[in-house]
Amino acid sequence: MNPDKLDKILNLIKVFAESDPRIIAVGLCGSYARGNARADSDIDLSILVNDKLEFKNTDWIDNFDFCKINE
């Protein structure tokens, strides 16, 4: 993934996390955090939340606007 697209995705995730008061923090982990990502690497995140039961299912992810990634 090119650096501009990565920055755009990480910024969208930041905006998303800041808009949800249940999310305390988001951390980048995996190959991008280690600095050894390849072109086909995915983005690994750790999300710290107030109540993990609210995030047990994946309904919350519907609030993320995936369409903006390709704008």
Protein model, in words:
The chain has 71 residues and is an alpha+beta fold. The chain has one domain (3-59). It is built from 2 helices and 2 strands, in the order αβαβ. It has helices at residues 3-19, 31-34, and strands spanning 23-29, 44-49. Strands 1-2 form a two-stranded antiparallel ribbon. The protein is globular and about 35 Å long. The mean pLDDT is 88.
Secondary-structure blueprint:
Layout: H1 3-19, E1 23-29, H2 31-34, E2 44-49
Antiparallel strand pairs: 1-2
Please trace the helix and strand order, writing H or E for each element: HEHE
Q: Count of helices?
A: 2
Strand coverage percent: 15-25%
Broad structural category: alpha+beta
- Average pLDDT, to the nearest integer? 88
The Cα radius of gyration reads 13 Å
Number of domains: 1
Quick overview of this protein structure:
The chain has 2 helices and 2 strands. The protein has helices spanning 3-19, 31-34, and strands at residues 23-29, 44-49. It has a two-stranded antiparallel sheet with strand order 1-2.
List keywords for this structure.
single chain, 71 residues, alpha+beta, two-stranded antiparallel sheet, 2 helices, 2 strands, 18% strand
